[in-house]
Request: fold
Amino acid sequence: MRSIGLLGAISIGIGGMVGGGIFAVLGEAVSLAHGATAVAFGIAGLVAILTAYSYAKFSVVYQSEGGTVTFIDKAFGDNILSGSVNLMLWLSYLVTISLYATAFASYGETFFTYKSIWLYHGLISVSIILPAVINLVSASFVGKSETFIVILKVSLLILVIVAGASYVDTERMSPQNWGTPFSIIVAGMIIFVAYEGFELIANSAEDIENPDKNLPRAFYASVIIVIALYILISVITVGSVSEDALMQAKDYALAIAAEPALGHVGFVLVASAALLSTFSAINATIYGNARLGYIIAKDGKLPRSLMDEEKKSGVPFKGVLYTTVLSLILANTIDLTEIAIIGSAGFLLIFFIVNLSAYKLQKEIDANRIIVSLSSIFAFFALGTLLYHTYSSNPRAVVIFMSFIIVSVLFELIYGRYFRGQFFDRRYKNVQKEKH
Reply:
């Protein structure tokens, strides 16, 4: 039974995007784009809205909780590409959890007078372990309050925008204070991970009322609303706070942006909202990634251990545990900048393949050839620009990202060749036994 209306679908998209990303990457954007931070968010938003077109077209025709996985499988079939992308998507969500966890730790540290590396990593670990426990005990605990959390964090962002509008010094955003054109584009690509999340609407397509109309409306409305929100936030941040102050508080820049208009109370409010928002996002992503692993494993494309679904809560226990352990390792060994780069690169690659899938199936999904061509070109150019810049400034991040791709391809080659056939043979035999 379809139970999600248009507003509910839009809130899924907004909630997915306005998670921990904006709290984590705002300082990164300012460090590269400087006075053109709003432009950088606009460029990233352009890539997001073009990709949302492909998702909207796909979601109407192929309504499935598999979402991205289903779309790529429909276009390219069961092969090395689709199998590798399945694992790459799963790994990318691990990076997203790590990004949210480091943001949680950065804002959490502001409540302590004494700071240490142990406190920072302790906060990272707690922010992952506690949501994992909640998922194992009752996955719906935070999920039931998700609408409230979305309203709260969006309301606080709007409060910062409204209160800070009169404190904006437009001179700080004048062209002479911009970064170079290339650095502005790179900034947009690094912060692209802040737009990741609109694709979650596709995973709920089967539950959305009047899907032919509401799915496209939900994709476009949620992305456009978030683009406007991010641009306004960046204008307030850059326009009301000196860049030196923002760079000193780079990892919690959004809280600093609230101080000119709202004082220390504003700082505490935004920092508290960041903690709640990132915690909620980690909880939802752990659950979503465990479910994604379950769906992929159910089709034989990941080990069957991820199919260990607990009957009462519907949570794949082992999937949650794998997600938790790997996220802890990533979050505690990679810094915030590298995590943002790897996360953005991962989703840009996946969205590029989704756009290519839309181009390949343009007739089947009734997509405009020019738009899906532009979507593919923009996503590819964005990914190439990000990797080119990162290779010269932070080669370790590129190495880690390429390692993810190599692991995904090798896993698909080995697992797909030697184990998947056995999986399907056993499943076929079980089906035949049930028939007899």
